[in-house]
Amino acid sequence: MDQSLAVVGCGYWGKNLVRNFAQLGALGFICDSDDGLLQAYREEYPNVRRTSRLEEVLTEDSIQAVAIATPAESHYVHVKEAILRGKNVFVEKPLALKYEQGRELVTLAKDRGVVLMVGHILNYHPAVRLLKDIVQKNELGRVWYIYSNRLNLGKVRQEENIWWSFAPHDISVICELLESEPHEVTASGGSYLQAGIVDVTVSSLFFENGVKAHIFVSWLHPYKEQKLVVIGEKKMAVFDDTAREGKLKIYDQGIEWEAGLPVPRQTSETTLFFDETEPLRLECEHFLTCIREHTRPLTDGESALRVLKVLEASQRSLEKGSLPVLLSEIAEAESK
Questions:
Q1: What is the pTM of this model?
Q2: What is the pLDDT of residue 3?
Q3: Per CATH, which fold does 5-121+279-309 belong to?
């Protein structure tokens, strides 16, 4: 694919999409409302067209695909406009801010025969792909529970709360590792900086096979932590994305029973090594491959709906004072 993709929203995160798609030889158009930013890109990418009007991008026949990195509240409208114009779409998470809207976009993409892919970037991280393989091969034994921490000081948002901003990454990976979605969730949190916008949440996910998971996210934390821990009956795995080295480790330890008493078993720790390619580069390559080969993306619209369902159910639990919410309630409510 040569110069047939447009990046829409080229600032905070979009600049990384611009860089990667340019390096892949696919960047043909840059669209952003900031004229100063467009001028800066003119110097860096003099052969790439620039505009502040999305309409100009969508009516350009040479553009086969758009990559959307605008604020989350605009995703639904922009994705829908692009699909209706016959464009293949990559959109940063979340797909939409409502399950009903997300489902509409997935149906629309299928009807129009275009690729719809959502930027759940951790699913493309080589460490996560390796961890998925380890889980599938039963090297950890039966998975008992999973927990993840995604913590930092900022970036505080005004248009979405911490749950919608940070948690989609972890929801997507946990569901991918287990190849299923939870049937019930609970969530609790607190708003400290802005009324009505939670800054910290702890959510529990309950799966039909008995696996439990919890996700702790906060942008009011004294240090950065991005850690996923998988506890199996035989071994345990830790993915620490903030570690400089040894991001993925397997711990051959657990609990043994001696004379009817539980005794910790601690034997070995193994650091696993993997391809160091930038996850976003792999994600962008995957999108282009799916367009070229007419294949289904790893993080397609259906997988994004699974994440949306968890997000919306947990939001309801937050609003109900941490009461449990069934995911079936989300789909049923939207179908009425």
A1: 0.91
A2: 55
A3: Rossmann fold (3.40.50)
